[in-house]
Amino acid sequence: MSRIKGTVDRPRMSVHRSNRQLYVQIIDDYSGKVITGASTLSEEMKKIDASTPQERARELGKLIASKASERKITKVAFDRKKFKYHGNLKALAEGAREGGLEF
Q: Considering the domain 12-98 in this protein, what is its CATH number?
């Protein structure tokens, strides 16, 4: 179970990082359901031309922000779990902020 809890107004944006990929989900903790999600393996990301891992992470942040705005979500609680706010995770967060999400 995550230490970060989302509320009705501010759902939780959970990030998982493997050695090669990033996975992001926006989760409604009250109903226990995933509202939307994206990863660097998704079809939308395959269409985007980004050469470095940090560029891919930034584009993934913009993608999750656009998916959230389609569902009228503007504020999220950023759950980075045990991962440091550095590198790809920082680029993902900056991309999500550029896309319109507030943490």
A: 3.30.420.100
Place of tokens 């989760």: 27
Read off the tokens for 21.
Answer: 């990929």
Outline where the chain has alpha helix (H). 43-46, 53-70, 88-98
pLDDT per position as a tens digit, 39-73: 999 999 988 888 899 999 999 999 999 999 999 99
CA angle 31, 103, 8 (to 5 degrees): 25
CA distance 23 to 58: 12
Orientation angle between helical segments 88-98 and 53-70, nearest 10 degrees: 40
Tokens of 4: 């970060």
Q: In angstroms, rounded to a whole number, what is the distance separating the alpha carbons of residues 41 and 22?
A: 8
Q: What is the pTM of this model?
A: 0.91
